[in-house]
Amino acid sequence: MSGAVEARIAELGLTLPEVVPPIASYQPAVQSGVYVYTSGQLPMVAGKLPVTGKVGAEVTPEEAKELAATCALNALAAVKSVAGDLDRVKRVVKVVGFVASAADFTGQPAVVNGASELLGEILGEKGVHARSAVGVAVLPLDAPVEVEVQVELVEA
After folding, report:
1. Spatial CA neighbour of 10 closest among 63, 73, 78, 84
2. Mean pLDDT over all residues of the chain?
3. Given a cut of 60, is residue 1 above it in pLDDT?
4. Which residues contact 48 (CB under 8 A, 6 or more apart)?
5. How many angstroms separate the CA atoms of 73 and 69, rounded?
6. CB-based burial, 1-37: b 16+ in 10 Å, e otherwise
7. Most buried residue, 103, 115, 133, 136, by most Cβ within 10 Å?
8. H or E element: which one contains 30?
């Protein structure tokens, strides 16, 4: 079933992907009360990472920002997998972005803006959230970016 949120995703020329299968022992998302917590979402497209490496070295900040948006779209797919309908999203509460960074790269907030801006474009005011943007040495599968999202749902 698709509603207004998925219609907005389509208006933006995007497609809500299938949920990315876990690469270890965890669930893509879990619901606790009215909250859904996603696991860290990599920028997988059709089951593959389009780019690998460190931001500020093999990956440009601009590429990484686009990858962060892909992570956010994957997170929305994970939210839908447990909520049933993205129209139940009352608001995005928190976004945490991890950026695999070259030693001298300090632009993590601008990279994670890719996720934040996409959530805002899709959800409007409901997409405004608290956030952390953290530089790390390495991420799973040598991904440049990983994003996790917490959302509050309207009770069913």
Report:
1. 73
2. 96
3. no
4. none
5. 6
6. eeeebbeebeeeebebbebbeeeeeeebbebeeeebb
7. 115
8. strand 29-32
pLDDT digits (tens, 9 = 90+) for 78-110: 999 999 999 999 999 999 999 999 999 999 999
User: pTM, whole model, 2 decimals?
Assistant: 0.96
Residue showing tokens 């606790």: 32
Task: Return the bridge partners of 135, or none.
Answer: 99
Residues 6+ apart with CB under 8 A from 73: 9, 14, 16, 17, 118
For 84-144, list the strands marked E by DSSP.
89-100, 130-136
CA distance 83 to 80: 5
Distance CA 102, CA 128 (A): 29
Average pLDDT (127-154) is 98
